[in-house]
Amino acid sequence: MDDRLLDRHREALDLFTDRVHAVRADQWDAPTPCSAWSVRDLVNHLTSEQLWVPPLVSGGRTVAQVGRAFDGDVLGDDPVAAWDRAAAGARAAFGERGAPERMVRLSYGPTRVDAYCSQMVLDAVVHTWDLSRGIGGDERLPGPLVDFALREVEPYADGLSASGLFDDPLELPPDADAQTRLLAMVGRGV
Q1: pLDDT interval class at 119 (50, 70, 90)
Q2: What is the DSSP string of 76-131?
Q3: C-alpha 66: how far from its chain's center?
Q4: Domains, in order of start, for the chain
Q5: Are the beta carbons of 47 and 83 closer than 8 angstroms?
Q6: What is the pLDDT of residues 53-96, one digit of tens each?
Q7: How many helices (H) and strands (E) does the chain have?
Q8: What is the dihedral of CA 32, 36, 39, 40, to 10 degrees?
């Protein structure tokens, strides 16, 4: 796997980690831009996503084989520690020798590990903004991560809302910056 992709993955996880560590005890039930999710729900979602990486990438398991192992609450009594463990596991799996040559079998079919990692970077970047907004934190995202996420999402941005997982894209003024364009593509108003 390209070292730059692993760098972006590490940076995206580190950024989300910073926000998770900034959540105050009274903020876990706060709303986020993801209308159905509280701060805890959002962190739970991203933690679950990271938990999938080792069995798929390292273990060669399919989504069906993993089954419902990561459904429900994966945060337990210590959401921060649960996130830290899951992020470390995902980082290690993507960084394994030979990982780039592997294929993972996702719900929509066989996917190269580097493509899967790119999708995970996009998810972490967008959800970092969501979490930042939910806790009143710094909403600015690093330029290299925004640029990476834009390149990842642009080819399929038009179909995201049809998946039911994203709101419709938002209209933008022509002078919108890269972060605003990224967020608008995934239905987030700034």
Answers
A1: very high
A2: TT-HHHHHHHHHHHHHHHHTSTTGGG-EEEETTEEEEHHHHHHHHHHHHHHHHHHH
A3: 19
A4: 3-140 (1.20.120.450)
A5: yes
A6: 999 999 999 999 999 999 999 999 999 999 999 999 999 999 99
A7: 7, 2
A8: 180
